[in-house]
Amino acid sequence: MTQHHPKPILLTGASGKLGRMLTKALTAHGWHLRLTDISAFPDPLPPGAEFTRADLEDGVTILKLAEGCSTILHFGGVSTEHPFEDIIGPNIRGLYHIYEAARREQARVIFASSNHSIGFYDRIHSITPEQPFRPDGYYGLSKAYGELIGRLYWDKHDVESIFVRIGSAYPEPIDARMLATWLSYDDLATMMTRCVLAEKVTCHVIWGASNNTRMTWWHGDARDQIGWAPKDSADPFAGQMAGKVSTNAIAESHMGGAFCAVGYSRKARS
Question: Is residue 42 part of a domain?
Answer without folding.
Answer: yes
